[in-house]
Design goal:
The structure holds two protein chains of two kinds.
Chain A lengths: L3 E7 L4 H18 L2 H21 L5 E8 L2 E9 L2 H14 L4 H9 L2 H5 L4 H10 L4 E6 L2 E9 L5
Antiparallel strand pairs in A: 1-2, 2-3, 3-5, 4-5
Helix pairs in contact in A: 1-2, 2-6, 4-6
Chain B lengths: L2 H6 L4 E2 L3 E8 L2 E10 L4 H18 L4 E5 L3 E4 L1 H15 L8 E5 L5 H6 L1 H6 L4 E4 L1
Parallel strand pairs in B: 3-4, 3-5, 4-6, 6-7
Antiparallel strand pairs in B: 1-2, 2-3
Helix pairs in contact in B: 2-3
Classes of the chains: A alpha+beta, B alpha/beta.
Chain lengths: ~160, ~130
């Protein structure tokens, strides 16, 4: 399968999220023929965009979807201060270290999960879909989160 | 007011692109969530309605309900968290105040079952999924 890539740069508007999610879903499905993989990619881009819109500080959000061989890579970046980056990085690293069932049980027993912890559920669900392949970087004052979804090539 | 009257008087909850309804199907109470739950704060719309129904179910000693998600096209993690809060509430009560939830999903949609994985992990004895 040849490599294909989509890049978008958007204002942090909630109204864009659904359109981008559905576009990525169709794009991955057309390219791979894999409905489950397309749904996973769409869910991941949705969750990452929701977090980016909430934390973007009115700056542009960049979205990238690359399909190559048997993977779809979803990358979302937005401006964030270094302190928030470190907090988020720690959360993601924690979400990537255990299997989904263990993480769910652990999360549900935390009082903060039900009271005020934003985004924890989304991270756990993303982790389950990309099998722990979440990478996080900080560059040019922006956080870049990249998730890789395995695709079984059907066509 | 008995549970049938409560359900008959239940007003559907409609978000921008989803609906939560409650009815009696084949003598069983059945919630139905359909559409796309992708608004920013689904808890503001869904949670009060679910908690009100939950209270009525407990008072009426309901033992089992259905939850139809066959027409649920998308639900974000905030939406899943709302359903989890309902299930946590049931789990944290004494056994005689608990009820089972049977989720009816579309077997063609792996997405649905995957999204509700967290809920089945949380309460395998109370939650089941059937096509």
């Amino acid at each position: 399968m040849t490599s294909e890539i989509i890049k978008l740069s958007i204002s942090p508007e909630w109204e864009y999220i659904r359109s981008i999610r559905e576009f990525i879903n169709v794009f991955v499905f057309i390219k791979s023929g894999n409905k489950e993989g397309a749904d996973d990619a769409a869910f991941i881009v949705n969750e990452l965009l929701e977090n980016a819109v909430k934390n973007s500080d009115n700056k542009k959000i960049r979205v990238e979807c690359r399909i190559e061989d048997d993977i779809a890579e979803i990358k979302v970046s937005n401006r964030i201060n270094k302190e928030n980056y470190t907090t988020l990085k720690n959360k993601i690293q924690r979400a990537c270290t255990q299997n989904a069932e263990k993480l769910y049980c652990e999360k549900f027993s935390e009082e903060s999960f039900w009271e005020n912890e934003k985004g924890a559920m989304g991270l756990v669900m993303i982790n389950e879909r990309c099998e722990g392949k979440i990478h996080i970087n900080y560059k040019d004052l922006s956080i870049i989160i990249a998730c890789t979804v395995p695709l079984k090539v059907l066509q | 007011m008995n549970i049938s009257d409560t359900i008959r008087s239940f007003n559907d909850v409609s978000g921008e692109s989803f609906t939560l309804s409650c009815s009696i199907v084949d003598d069983r109470i059945c919630l139905k969530l359909a559409g796309k739950v992708d608004i920013q704060n689904p808890d503001e719309l869904l949670l009060p309605a679910l908690l009100k129904l939950d209270k009525d179910f407990v008072e009426s000693k309901v033992h089992e309900i259905g939850f139809n998600i066959k027409e649920l096209e998308f639900i974000n993690s905030s939406g899943i968290k709302v359903i989890l809060q309902l299930v946590m509430g049931i789990l944290n009560r004494h056994g005689d105040q608990q009820y089972k939830i049977i989720f009816y999903h579309n077997p063609e949609s792996k997405y649905q079952k995957k999204s509700f994985n967290a809920i089945s992990f949380l309460a395998p004895a109370l939650i089941s999924f059937v096509p």
